[in-house]
């Protein structure tokens, strides 16, 4: 490992960079502002309008070295530039990305560009169709609580709400650790850079984003596989058992299979066997840093869970309410339903679900819902329409007009001892700008109920 951090201000000064996709979640704003402060010559291009991006644009209004292009991308902005910084949502097959390649312009992304600029930082990357957020949070919590023992700083980046990774170049030093959640799109950047994290965790692999990948599980896995594809022999890959079966035997790094049998004496607040598998992965990462077991156990015991991931919110008149907003696939909702059904009688869960279709199979999901749920109340959307049209829901079911109406219907349906589980199994688009907006509204609605 090269023991250095580059002079990033000098590196980015006067560089001609096209930022493709500013967005409204904060990450695009974070690295755009950072590059502007470094003196880069920026073109910020986004398909959204100025009005839609108003909050992000306002935060950048004082920079004279930024030119905005709203409502379109222009081929000329992908010629004669030093690099393209691509937002994760932009497909690699985009005609504009192809134009940049034709002109031999490097395609960069936030986290992988950080890794290039800071080879002296130890990178811990976490991916998986499900479980990456919980595992990332656990790893960060354990390492952060042990900073004094480790004698190095721990930072959080990647697919974390409102967090841009590139600006961390201002803080990190060689030997520090960056723990980052990496979705398949962000891992495209690692594929472009032909690099992988030093310690990688692959939690799970199942169908998701098939609308983006055009029903190709091979293409989806190819992006995910960048988390270990370029690892060296001194690097480490940690997987849950079922992932081992799909990993090539030709990997160069050390392979560790996380086993829940090794953590039976750990006290962990989050329900579900799948969450304990995520915990097992996090503990294996901690072991790579030689953190004492007693220190790891203390951090795990104090872990409070993660918002939107099978999160207990409150009890209303004897009815427990859980927020599993980030369950955006049928498999994720299945895991949540099963976790809350453990050691309980069947038919106690009122499920709140529905939303936008992601072109995923719903057969097993329907079976689980019919078996373990008392009723299902649905948010309007293309996925909801598909569910009711193509599958037979045998339990009481209805569609609300919006999320507030759906929550009210669920509470009306529930009796003391029941559980209300908000676990959509579908994407948020259509009714919401993104899953975070959906999460925030749900939490606001629940907190407003006495």
UniProtKB/TrEMBL annotation:
Its EC number is 6.3.2.9. Keywords: ATP-binding, Cell cycle, Cell division, Cell shape, Cell wall biogenesis/degradation, Cytoplasm, Ligase, Nucleotide-binding, Peptidoglycan synthesis. Pathway: Cell wall biogenesis; peptidoglycan biosynthesis. Residues 126-246 form the Mur ligase central domain. One of its GO terms (cellular component) is cytoplasm. It comes from the Bacteria. It catalyses: UDP-N-acetyl-alpha-D-muramoyl-L-alanine + D-glutamate + ATP = UDP-N-acetyl-alpha-D-muramoyl-L-alanyl-D-glutamate + ADP + phosphate + H(+). It is found in: Cytoplasm. The keyword Nucleotide-binding applies. SUPFAM superfamilies: MurCD N-terminal domain (SSF51984), MurD-like peptide ligases, catalytic domain (SSF53623), MurD-like peptide ligases, peptide-binding domain (SSF53244). Its main location: cytoplasm. One of its GO terms (biological process) is cell division. Pfam families: Mur_ligase_C, Mur_ligase_M, MurD-like_N. InterPro entries: Mur-like_cat_sf, Mur_ligase_C, Mur_ligase_C_dom_sf, Mur_ligase_cen, MurD. One of its GO terms (molecular function) is UDP-N-acetylmuramoylalanine-D-glutamate ligase activity. Residues 308-425 form the Mur ligase C-terminal domain. Cell wall formation. Catalyzes the addition of glutamate to the nucleotide precursor UDP-N-acetylmuramoyl-L-alanine (UMA). This is UDP-N-acetylmuramoylalanine--D-glutamate ligase. It comes from Candidatus Nomurabacteria bacterium GW2011_GWF2_40_12.
């Amino acid at each position: 490992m090269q023991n250095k951090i580059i002079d990033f201000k000098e590196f980015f000064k006067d560089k001609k960079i096209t930022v493709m996709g500013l967005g409204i979640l904060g990450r695009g704003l974070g690295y755009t502002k950072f590059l502007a402060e470094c003196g880069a010559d920026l073109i910020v291009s986004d398909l959204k309008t100025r009005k839609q991006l108003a909050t992000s644009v306002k935060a950048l209004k004082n920079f004279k070295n930024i030119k905005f292009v709203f409502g379109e991308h222009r081929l000329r902005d992908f010629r004669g530039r030093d690099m393209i910084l691509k937002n994760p949502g932009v497909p690699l097959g985009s005609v504009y990305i192809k134009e940049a390649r034709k002109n031999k312009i490097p395609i960069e992304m936030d986290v992988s560009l950080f890794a290039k600029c800071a080879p002296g930082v130890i990178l811990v990357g976490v991916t998986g169709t499900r479980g990456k957020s919980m595992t990332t949070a656990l790893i960060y919590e354990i390492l952060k609580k042990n900073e004094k023992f480790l004698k190095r700083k721990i930072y959080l980046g990647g697919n974390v709400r409102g967090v841009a990774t590139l600006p961390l170049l201002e803080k990190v030093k060689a030997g520090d650790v960056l723990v980052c959640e990496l979705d398949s799109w962000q891992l495209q950047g690692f594929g472009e850079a032909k690099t992988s994290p030093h310690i990688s965790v692959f939690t799970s692999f199942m169908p998701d984003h098939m609308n983006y990948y055009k029903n190709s599980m091979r293409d989806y896995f190819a992006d995910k596989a960048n988390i270990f594809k370029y690892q060296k022999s001194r690097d480490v890959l940690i997987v849950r058992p079922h992932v081992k079966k799909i990993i090539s035997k030709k990997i160069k790094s050390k392979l560790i299979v996380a086993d829940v049998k090794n953590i039976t004496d750990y006290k962990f607040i989050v329900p579900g066997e799948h969450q304990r598998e995520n915990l097992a992965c996090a503990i294996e990462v901690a072991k790579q840093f030689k953190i004492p077991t007693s220190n790891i156990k203390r951090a795990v015991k104090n872990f409070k869970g993660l918002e939107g991931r099978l999160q207990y919110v409150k009890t209303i008149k004897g009815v427990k309410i859980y927020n599993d907003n980030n369950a955006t696939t049928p498999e994720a909702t299945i895991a949540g339903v099963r976790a809350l059904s453990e050691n309980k009688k069947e038919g106690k869960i009122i499920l709140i679900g529905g939303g936008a279709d992601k072109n995923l199979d719903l057969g097993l999901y329907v079976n689980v819902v019919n078996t373990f749920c008392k009723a299902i109340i649905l948010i309007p959307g293309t996925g909801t329409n598909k569910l009711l049209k193509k599958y037979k829901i045998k339990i009481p079911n209805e569609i609300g007009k919006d999320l507030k109406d759906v929550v009210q219907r669920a509470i009306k349906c529930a009796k003391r001892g029941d559980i209300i589980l908000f676990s959509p199994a579908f994407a948020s688009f259509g009714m919401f700008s993104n899953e975070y907006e959906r999460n925030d509204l749900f939490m606001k609605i629940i907190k407003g109920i006495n």
